[in-house]
Design a protein that fits this description.
The protein is mostly helical and about 200 residues long. It has two domains: about 1-70; about 100-200, Substrate Binding Domain Of Dnak, Chain:A, Domain 2 (Up-down Bundle). The protein is about 65% helix and about 0% strand. The chain contains six helices and no strands. The chain is elongated, with a radius of gyration of 46 Å. Residues about 10-40 and about 85-95 have low confidence and may be disordered.
Amino acid sequence: MASMQAAARTLLVRCGEAYPVTAHRAATCTHDGAVPAAGLASPPMNRRDALLTTGSMIVSASLGALACGGNRAVAQNTPKAPPPAPGGHAHHAPGGDPTLAEAAQGCLAKGEACIAHCLAMFAAGDASMGACAKAVYEMHAVMQGLAAAAASGSKHLPALAKVAMEFCKDCENECRKHAAEHAACRECMEACTKTIAACQKVAA
């Protein structure tokens, strides 16, 4: 910016002082400060026009420098977005147990199927699976809380896992009695076995 202002001042000196326009001077001053050759139709420029032209150049140069400087300042002060965390986002809370949560969900699904099978047996007049239905029903109620606590990483998870494990053992024992004849009971028993193993790893 300083160099442009100096050039503009030099131009002012050349047009306003080195070649002053008077009533007795026939020569005229062009925009670049040179005196046109005789016979060329070049429009005359008086001192006032030279000053206005030079002032416009200085203002334009100043505004351009300010604009460039402002853009650099904005670019430097604009905060950059933080890079994404490696490995993506975690999908479970710190301290959670996804393995136990999955096992509990398995008990919920297989338990519902087993209860439905027991109800069908009751409707057919067969009450031999009454104890199994009761054990599965109680296990199912506890697994809902266990699955939620395991997924969220509850501080009560170890204590809850210890209690839930006992419900799974009862259900496992009752379903085992009918596992050979009823697939629903066998699958529920296997789900309870898996959950018991997961509970043992975190039980207090």
